[in-house]
Fold these 4 entries.
Entry 1:
Amino acid sequence: MALGISAAAGSFGQFAVLPLTQWLLSNVGWVGALLTLACVGVLIAPLAAALVERRVSHTHAFKQSAGQAMSEALGHRGYVLLTVGFFVCGFQVVFVGVHLPAYLTDHGMAAHVAVMSLALIGLFNVIGTYITGWLGAKMPKRYILSFIYFGRSVVIALFVFLPLSQASVYAFAMVFGLLWLSTVPPTNGIVAQVFGVRYLAMLSGFTFFSHQIGSFLGAWLGGRLYDTTGSYDVVWYISIALGVIAGLINLPIDEREIRRAPAAA
């Protein structure tokens, strides 16, 4: 639930800042827009001062090194499947985030349509991430993740194969926004539930590293195949197929907490 709320806050930033960025680009150019956003970024740093971590001795009764924790996770079939699935998440969201504006331009859409669609994705992701955080406390998280990945494939297929219009773009943005980063709370929730919270940052970070590899490929492969084929169709089809694969591999994840022998006194 906490992960869902924090992710929702980040998504609201996407909704709020994109229209501002478009206005800056139109009035002060890309250099002025970049410098303005850099100043906004600097303002984030002081907020970290409020993040005070207090050690609680009884929280981590089981003694385990970081290397042992990483080895344990990599030997856990569910963790590996979760990490592979998160790769697909990165591929899909960055491909859409980076290449959707160009795709719409190719189909004769005005620039404001692309900006509004990305803003809608951010706004509806606030709802999606909150809901998955809430649902994660009430039902198996692997089912939530499978539903999200299968849902993305369906939404992308409808968007690509149905006639394109401004209304269909906004409908796609709203529904896809619900599924955008709503994978984050259940993904991190499974890691915490299975392995505990002592090395949650490290284990979730490794999973997120897989997400970023997918993000790189979504951005790069989208442009590469566009240059090669003259359209984004192939990458849309790849995104649909990857969503189905990710939906399937998340189903057998074992969410049960690992039982370890108690540490010696």
Entry 2:
Amino acid sequence: MTDLLDERARAIHAIDRTCPHCGAERAADQAYCVECGYALPPVRGRVASLRRRWVRRVGWYPGDWVWAALAALALAALGAAAAVTVSRARHPAGPHVITALGSVPVVQAVAPPQVTTAAGTLPTPPEPATPSKHARGNQVWPAGQTGWTIVLVSYPKTAGRPAAQTTADKAAHAGLPEVGVLDSSRYSSLQPGYFVVFTGIYDTQAQANAAVAGAHSAGFGAAYSRQIAG
């Protein structure tokens, strides 16, 4: 339990002290990242407090956009409840009796014709595959390969690798493909000193950009495409 609390404390420290876009160090009162110009989320105020509580309970954080989504969901739920209440008030529940004026013909159900081929009945298509609950984010970037990927989260190496691996496992469990952890110090295209959680190995930037939306839908709102070069 103590190790889990320490890991989440390191994750909170990483979120508060680094840019979610490129992983560069930031100050508490800094509004924009000096490395990439990204508008940094505030580390003071109610949203920052809610962000830390989320990480303490869940262990990872999808992004500040989640609060707007939750508020919209709550408003939608309240609207649906109000609509049901108004509908019930206008149409009170009670038995509806319908009396037939004559004999009612009964239509027999007819089974649809079975389609066959020369080899016999067409096979039933298999159920779509779903991610295993034991999925692990253990993808290794191919040695010597230059390509593109999607960066989900970057953790300072001082926080240790376990937090990055935990996030990679959760991303793999969410269904993201080819999830793993990179040591940024080994790649010239990345800022050294970070464990980078990535998903996907693509030949072109266009392919990586097209897959960014999937990472956002899986809960990683700050995900972005990045070239990986040795």
Entry 3:
Amino acid sequence: MFKRKFIKMVGTTISQKKINVHMLDEINRSIQRYMLMLLITNASLGLCIYLLLKYLSINNAGTWALVAAALHLVPYFGSLVTAVCLGVAAFMQSGGALPVAAGAAGGSLLIATLIGNGMTTWMTGRMARMNAVAVFVSLLLFTWLWGTWGMLLAIPLAVIAKVVADHVEGLEVLAEFLGE
């Protein structure tokens, strides 16, 4: 219903309506690809955390891996909370062994950094057909503007901006900046 109302309001000619339908479909596909990328990267992070915790003989490694994957949806702070919790759990389970606690906390931060800053940024750029620098800059900008909500909404908003810029005359500069 929203799509029909939107098309009815924005276009007066058939060609304008076709462009807007194509733009909405492309936004939908881009957001779906982004959600798939989040699933893949968070599952990868969960698997790596699971393997790390199994190596360190931490109890409930699967549960911790699921928590780490879920918290990784919140950029930066989710990984920090995960590292602190894993460090405390490892410290308590190992009988106060600092190397095990440091390995769990530091290893989880290393995994989150590699996957979050490397793999996620690269895959977001590939799936959304966006420049990796533009992805990073949009994360910084929206986080600065809106805090946590900005972190969560930065990439979908940047993807929508790119699709719109690709289809609207006068926004070629923005499309070129955001594009691959």
Entry 4:
Amino acid sequence: MDTDRIQLAEAFLFTEGGSLTIRKLSALLKVKESELPTLLDQLSVKLEDRGLTLIKTDTEVSLVVSPNASEVVRATYAHELERDIGEAGLEVLAVVLYRGPSTRAQIDYIRGVNTSSTIRNLLARGLLERAGNPDDGREYLYRPTVELLAHLGVRDMKELPEHEKLAGELALFEKTKDAGPENEYGSTN
């Protein structure tokens, strides 16, 4: 039994907070894709009678709440989801709505704080969706869901109030911040 790799697989799946492709998990563990099913089977056995379980498809694997714990967890989070999304949630939604599909790093950069728990909350509520980033397979893009746009009463993000102006201001903010302090105070050399 390859205990170190099993622990690493569990850690990668936990930190991902969602599914990982077989290809990506194999790369992270530095094993051949053909070796991964055995490791995942061993992890499944290790997780028996615990609060988590493994779900596998031909292409993806995910660490999820076990069936035994899911009802209690769902009931607890149902109460949480009834609460207001708060200022942080509104700010993340505004960034994604006015900037367009964004990585977590881009959202964090604009807000100036870590947004992982806020994004997780918005994903759970069905306000954001996560998709692979075609420019970088190591990260995801977050975009508004159709349900969010419907709730806001718009058919597309360009119908949002002052969309063009605010999208331009966000782009300028990112461009100015990317230029660094030398842009504002002259050369740093």
